[in-house]
Structures are given as C-alpha cells and as structure tokens.
Design brief:
alpha/beta; Rossmann fold
C-alpha cells in the first residue's frame, strides 16, 4: 500500500511549478501568513530536539528557511543539509545562506549545504542524521508514505522526525475563514504574482492532505513512536513529531 493521495499532480508538474514560483515564494508566504511562517519554522526546529554537533536533514527545503533554523540548534560543530527537487528554489536557498554569512562577522560554527534530491529516494545512508524535518512540503510528496519512510530510514534510532504542515479546520468560524482565504484570496494573490495555477493548486493540496490524526497514524505505520501533534494558528497549522524506532 502506498501513501499516494488521489488528485496529486504528477511529480514533474509539481517540480516545474515550484521552479516557476521560486522568485515570489518567500514574499507570498509572508503575505499569506502575516509573517508567522518564520515562527512556525522555529517551533518545528525546536521539536527536532537537536544538540550542538548534531546532524540534521531538511526535506523539501525550498528556499532554506527551516534548514537555517536547524543550523542554530546544532552549532557549534554540527551540520545541516537541505534538499529539494526544485533547482530554482535551491538557488535562492544558497543565496540566502551567503547573505546571512556576509551579515555576521563571527566564524562559521555549523556546516550548512543545499543539494538537489527527491524525497522519494533520499541519497543518504541509513541512520545518517539525528533528525529530519519537512516544512510545508509533505503535501507535495508524490507518495506520502514513501517520503516519510525515507526520512525515517536516514535518521538514527531515537532521533526525531518533524512535519510542519497546513491543515484544514473543520469547525466554524475558522473553517469559513479558511474557505474564503484559500479559495478566493490566495488564487488572487497567485494571479497578481503571475502564476494563478500554482496558487490554485495550494488550496487543493491542503484539502487532500491527511488530517492531524490520520497523519499521526501514518507516521506510526512507517516506524515512528511517541508521536505527538499540536495545532496552532487557530487550528490551521499542525506540527507533528515522532521518534524513530528500529
């Protein structure tokens, strides 16, 4: 049995879409979340429970914000790798890393790198990392079960997997606001940014993604224990964490 979700776009189409919207991605994220996405990524990085000198992997890293949050937790002496299948996103992540390095006069205390990789087949050996995260990318996995299983495979026993994702509220008034915002406002923002198709895809990708309890059950199925999740932003954002067991 796979974790593929009905209605998922073919992987090459998703990859091409993120290449197209890379230049507006950060700006629209800030507009759509009132800048709160940075705080949500900080919470995800905290849940990874990393220590100085640790190694972390950020899957579907996009422009690298969550990977850079993880870097604060493994300094000094640690390493963070961010991977994505969109080269345009990775170019921006590399640029962002370089800009941050220029803004600080202190020596580099953690190795951060970005590379092209598909979440369905991570190019790392078993038990290579102390934690792995995915922020707002799991709903774009071609096969959710396989993507989560790959993250479990590359993390050491006892290490953590963290999933930060948008979820669909089920009770008014928040469910009503969610419908209006994602069905009407977000596509308008997409048209203004020059890619209405991509930002029409966003609401549908959120709705077909498993709810918090279903995602927790799937995480258990792929080998995670002590799974917890918490909802924030009134129930629109879900943070899941589980511990690798083998």
């Amino acid at each position: 049995m796979t974790g593929a979700t009905p209605g998922t776009l073919p992987e090459p189409e998703v990859q091409a879409m993120f290449d197209r919207i890379a230049r507006v991605y950060d700006r629209l994220n800030s507009v759509m979340t009132a800048g709160l996405h940075h705080e949500w990524r900080r919470r995800a990085a905290q849940l990874a429970a990393l220590e100085p000198g640790g190694r972390a992997l950020d899957v579907a890293t996009g422009t690298g914000d969550l990977a850079l949050e993880l870097a604060h937790r493994v300094a000094p002496g640690g390493a963070v790798i961010g991977v994505d299948f969109s080269d345009a996103m990775l170019e921006l992540a590399v640029d962002k890393l370089a800009r941050r390095a220029r803004r600080t006069s202190s020596p580099v205390e953690v190795a951060v790198s970005f590379s092209h990789a598909n979440a369905m087949e991570l190019p790392f050996v078993d038990d290579e990392f102390d934690a792995a995260t995915v922020g707002f990318g799991a709903r774009n996995f071609a096969d959710l079960r396989r993507g989560l299983a790959e993250m479990v495979r590359v993390v050491k026993p006892g290490g953590r997997i963290v999933v930060l994702e948008i979820t669909t509220p089920t009770k008014p008034p928040l469910s009503t606001f969610f419908d209006v915002w994602f069905d009407r406002v977000v596509p308008v923002l997409g048209r203004a940014a020059g890619d209405s198709a991509a930002y029409s895809y966003l609401p549908s990708s959120v709705r077909r993604f498993p709810g918090p309890e279903a995602l927790a059950a799937l995480m258990s199925d792929v080998g995670l224990a002590r799974i917890e999740y918490r909802l924030t932003a009134g129930g629109i954002i879900a943070l899941h964490v589980g511990e690798v067991r083998r």
